[in-house]
């Protein structure tokens, strides 16, 4: 069972999943491994980390495609080389077309840095602070064609502290992401035939 991970930046969630696959022995227990990491940005630092770990990496630069559908088709072609059992969006900052979502129906998941259904979209931490939220968090969910609205697979909650900046809250949430995302992936692997 191949896991393909899509990133756009630092890839800390991708790294947490790779490290969990080793520490939790996913290959031996589930016949699963992280087969490849792809990014829409050649500058994504996570690509350097993944390559350093011996994981195949690839870049599909969205700027080279006039339409969203063409970008998605090119990305799908690279992903499907690995016949993935699971496609994991991890800090992947692209909105995917319905065709992409349909193609990976039921094997496409994402992590969003808020307690969905609250704060879909961007700048979730500043918005939570601005609203006076006492709690914030992260959500692992299935990806559907409606942004940030798929079935929830797991969540973690953190306190919003007086004087919190968006950066401080983001760091507190990210720590929890690194716990719940690998856990959610393992739960899905365990449930696969
Ligand atoms: C972070 O804001 C995280 O909350 C969200 O994507 C961003 C980058 O994550 N999931 P990563 O370090 O690239 O995994």
Automatic annotation (TrEMBL):
Catalytic activity: N(1)-(5-phospho-beta-D-ribosyl)glycinamide + (6R)-10-formyltetrahydrofolate = N(2)-formyl-N(1)-(5-phospho-beta-D-ribosyl)glycinamide + (6S)-5,6,7,8-tetrahydrofolate + H(+)
GO molecular function: phosphoribosylglycinamide formyltransferase activity
Residues under site feature: Raises pKa of active site His: 148
UniProt pathway annotation: Purine metabolism; IMP biosynthesis via de novo pathway; N(2)-formyl-N(1)-(5-phospho-D-ribosyl)glycinamide from N(1)-(5-phospho-D-ribosyl)glycinamide (10-formyl THF route): step 1/1
Residues that, per the record, bind (6R)-10-formyltetrahydrofolate: 68, 93-96, 110
The protein's Enzyme Commission number: 2.1.2.2
Highest taxon of the lineage: Bacteria
Formyl transferase N-terminal domain segment(s): 1-185
Known function: Catalyzes the transfer of a formyl group from 10-formyltetrahydrofolate to 5-phospho-ribosyl-glycinamide (GAR), producing 5-phospho-ribosyl-N-formylglycinamide (FGAR) and tetrahydrofolate.
Family of the protein in this entry: Belongs to the GART family.
PANTHER family named among the record's database cross-references: PHOSPHORIBOSYLGLYCINAMIDE FORMYLTRANSFERASE
UniProt-recorded name of the protein: Phosphoribosylglycinamide formyltransferase
Organism (species): Hydrogenophaga palleronii
Protein's gene: purN
